Amino acid sequence: MAKNNRRYYWLQLAQDFFKSKEMKLLRKMPGGDTYTIIYLKLMLISLEDSGKIYFEELAQDLAEEMSLLIDEDTEAVRMTLMFLSQKGLLTKHSDYEFFLEQVPEMIGSETASTRRSRKHREQKALHCNTNATKCNGDIDIDKEKKLDINLDIKSEVEVEKIGNSTTADEKSNSNVFDYYQQRIGMIDGYQYQKLKDYLEYDHFEEGLIKIAIDRAADNGKRNFGYINAILKNWAQNGITTVVQQNEDQRNYEEAKAKRNQKPEREATEYDDLF
């Protein structure tokens, strides 16, 4: 049931977002419009994690990793991160976790079943000629709305019943969740559902998810956000199997070796961040 009830996220900008001093300063910089787009893209990829972005140590620094993730120029991303840090819009929680301060108040979300119900009601409303009487089918829509709410609540309960899974899919995936608890720690309902989504929606091999879990545990980063950032990056790059990940890692190591042969760029005061 939860399989068809994914949660969707969107960014809600305040009406005066672009009138703030920070945004005016950013846009007035040379290349400011590009930096503004980069900032919006960074906020979008952080929505599911309530404003957090992660440095997975897959690239040289955070700027390079984010540039790969949002398909923007690395130096432009680096300049944007520096500006955001200077203005307090980006804060550093650890060596691998950063936080976009404005995002939490801008997050909008709904489940797939709620979205279907809303769209259905909107379509029905187009056929209404007056507000005096209900359109045909409105009573059914009200019933559907109640049903959607019940489905959402039941889905949440099912996610939390990790140790008492009853469906065949949940039983087949249990070893991934057990592996997470063995190497990282107790798994909660949100973490369980996210891993389940990677298996069912993104069609990840179980072995690939275990690689991400191992990478976090072996680096002493027993943090679901770190694992989720790795899996999200692989999903966005079409990596769903262990073979594909091994090939991608080889390509990265080769590129890194070539990069290290080039003269190092001039150091800046922000190198410790980005």
Give an overview in words:
By secondary structure, the chain is mainly alpha-helical. It has 3 domains: 2-106, Arc Repressor Mutant, subunit A; 112-162, no CATH class; 165-247, Arc Repressor Mutant, subunit A. The chain contains 11 helices and 5 strands; from the N terminus they run βααβααβββααααααα. The protein has helices at residues 21-28, 32-45, 62-70, 74-86, 112-125, 138-160, 168-183, 189-200, 206-218, 224-236, 242-260, and strands at residues 7-11, 52-54, 90-92, 97-100, 107-111. It has a 3-stranded antiparallel sheet with strand order 2-4-3. The chain has a two-stranded antiparallel ribbon with strand order 1-5. β3 (90-92) and β4 (97-100) form a beta hairpin. α2 packs across α4, α7 runs parallel beside α9 (206-218) and α8 (189-200) packs parallel to α10. The radius of gyration is 22 Å and the shape is globular. The two termini are 42 Å apart. 25% of the residues are buried.
